[in-house]
Design a protein that fits this description.
The complex is a heterodimer of chains A (110) and B (200). Chain A is built from five helices and no strands. In chain A, helix 2 crosses helix 3, helix 3 packs across helix 5 and helix 4 crosses helix 5. Chain B is mainly α. In chain B, helix 3 packs across helix 7, helix 4 runs antiparallel to helix 7 and helix 5 runs parallel beside helix 7. The chains are: A mainly alpha (110), B mainly alpha (200).
Chain lengths: 110, 200
């Protein structure tokens, strides 16, 4: 490879790397603005009952009762999606049940 | 995509994190950092144990790095023979070996966490350029501990916002890795200009 050729290749690599760096910098800044408090993020299938109780700041019993599951110690993670599958219902059904339970719990707490 | 990754952790627990850490050290494009964030968050929620999440990710990562390093080591002599056929190439390979010998330890250390996307390549290169196995292992194990505790710890502390945090962190990590590559290529360009100002 001639010196000139390899230097051109190097310059091209540098330009591409610089463009990629700037792209990531812009994306990172854009996403940094969205990190703020995420209280009451929408309930999704990947979440576990315990995770819902943590992120919605609810007693575990409220979630356990709404879903009819035992959240005592020892049991491992279980996603809402897999609970729904076990019951043969779409995950939205569980999300609705949870949202109703959360609403009535908060109404009582007020 | 993020949902699928988090779902893997809520279905498979620590096993998913360990396997993913192992594979991502071998260039399989899995977002292990997101998995560790989720592992930390599920630990905060009481679904998983934090030491199990951190320990599992660490073991997977160290085993993956070792595998990459061994592959590099096996390929090393072949690359050396290939380089020896051409004097300029031979000099380049000899210089690469010297750089690895002088700076390889903390290079490996930084590649496990500060510029993690470059890690798999550094493992291969360190193996091929003949970095000592113990030196590699110690720096690597220390660096992976920082990576694992950093991500799982952030997931634990900010459990309720791992989705947005994950999006930020993966871009920030891409920025650091690409920035490092840009810097290195820039230095190479400058050095060439300095060495041969009259050419071209």
């Amino acid at each position: 490879m001639s010196g000139r050729h390899s230097r051109r290749l190097l310059a091209l690599g540098f330009t591409v790397a610089l463009a990629v760096t700037l792209f990531f910098a812009m994306q990172a800044l854009r996403h940094a603005g969205a990190i703020g408090p995420a209280a009451d993020a929408p309930i999704e299938g990947w979440m576990t009952p315990r995770y819902v109780s943590l992120s919605w700041d609810l007693p575990r019993e409220v979630v356990a009762e709404a879903l009819g599951v035992d959240l005592g110690g020892g049991s491992g993670p279980r996603s809402l999606a897999s609970l729904a599958e076990e019951r043969g219902v779409p995950v939205e059904v569980l999300v609705d049940e949870l949202e109703t339970a959360i609403e009535s719990y908060r109404a009582r707490a007020r | 995509m993020t949902d699928t990754v988090f779902g893997l952790v809520s279905s498979w627990g620590v096993l998913a994190i360990t396997l993913s850490a192992f594979l991502s050290c071998l260039l399989v494009p899995i977002p292990t950092s997101l998995m560790m964030l989720a592992g930390g968050a599920f630990a905060a929620a009481g679904d998983l144990s934090f030491p199990a999440v951190a320990g599992g990710a660490w073991l997977g990562a160290v085993a993956g790095d070792q595998t990459g390093f061994r592959i590099g080591r096996t390929a090393g002599p072949g690359i050396g023979r290939f380089a020896a056929r051409h004097p300029r190439r031979e000099a380049l390979f000899a210089r690469a070996r010297r750089v690895v010998d002088d700076h390889g330890g903390y290079g490996v250390f930084l590649s496990t966490w500060a510029v993690a996307p470059l890690g798999p390549y550094v493992n291969l290169a360190a193996g091929a350029a003949g970095l000592g196995a113990w030196r590699f292992t110690l720096w690597d194990a220390a660096g992976e501990a920082i990576w694992v505790i950093g991500y799982a710890g952030l997931g634990y502390l900010f459990a309720d916002r791992i989705e947005t945090l994950g999006a930020f962190l993966s871009n920030a990590s891409g920025f650091l890795a690409a920035g490092t590559v840009t810097l290195l290529l820039g230095l190479l360009l400058l050095r060439r200009r300095a060495v041969r100002p009259s050419r071209d």
